[in-house]
Structures are given as C-alpha cells and as structure tokens.
Amino acid sequence: MKMLQKSIFISLLCTSLNLSASDAEINEAIAAATKHYKAGELSQAIAQLDYASTLIRQEKGEQVKSAFPDAPSGWEAEDASSEVAGAAMFGGGITASRVYYNDEQRIEMQLMMDSPMLQAFSMMLSNPSMIAMSGGKLTKIQGIQAVQKVDGDQLEIQFVTPGGAMITLSGDNAAQSTMLKLANAIDLKKL
Known about the structure:
Number of strands: 8
Structural class: alpha+beta
Strand content: 25-35%
Radius of gyration: 20 Å
Largest sheet: 8 strands, antiparallel
Oligomer: single chain
Helix content: 40-55%
C-alpha cells in the first residue's frame, strides 16, 4: 500500500510541477509496472503505468509548445506554457497556450490534445448544422474546417487538426486578420 501511495504522490507531484522526464525515469516506471504486474500487484502496476504515461505527456507538452507561431510584426508574445492532466483527471491530455498582444489588443491561442473529451468537440465542429444553430460561421484554416463565433466585440476561432488537437484562438474582433494569420502559421507537423 505504501508503494501505491508513493507512486501516486510522485505522479501528482510531477504533473503539477511540469518536470521534464528522462528516458531512464520512464523506462524505470515501465519496468516497475511490469514487475508489479508479474507479481499480481495490479494496483501498483497501474500506478506505475499512469506515472510513465504522465512523464511521456509532459515531454510531449514541452514539444508542442514549439508549434505556436512567433508574434507577427507589431505584436509581442508571452512564452508558451503547457500543462498535463493524468489519466485519472478527465481521461488525461495536454493543454498548451500562448498569449499575443500589442498596445490595444490581446489574442490567446490554446491547444488541447490527447484528451477523450475532444471527440465530442470534433463531432460538433464537423457538423455544419450545429455550427449554424450556435451562431458560428464556417471558414478554412490551413485547409481545415474551422468555426468563427462573434460575441459582442470578442471573436473565437476553433478547429480540430488532422492529428486530433483542438486549437482555439480568442480575442478582440478587431484583430480578426491577425488571428487568422496566427492560426494559419501554426506548425501542425509538431502536434
């Protein structure tokens, strides 16, 4: 039982700190899971596999931050950030974001991937009738169907990449051309 508690604690700690794992840590967790499984200690095996998958998600979370484009001319950008949720929390997944700004406007770009919750979003975004009923307007981003929604002076653009990542850009409606430029500059190969 102490081993299980220790594994869960370590997994939660690493998830909250967004630490980068080494190959050795991942291999060690997988080897420990195999050892526990062969000994019939299934709860401990699950905890070690969850730990290993969280470490891998953290590594992937760091990699996807490089998919965000640089700030366009006249704009600045904050450093991209990423967070990882373990399988126990909403089925797991990776989120990353980056904020772009100038003296008058602000745009936030968010990315969500590897989450079971994305299936529902994908189905909604691929249904033109649902989009029209929700007040959305269809457009294309890098050849992918996307939805634009205006709420007052705020604009939101959402699309799901072929690799299954959902991208959301939100900001001032007056910055629409910059939002579209940023969306079309995302490096989809890095997702």
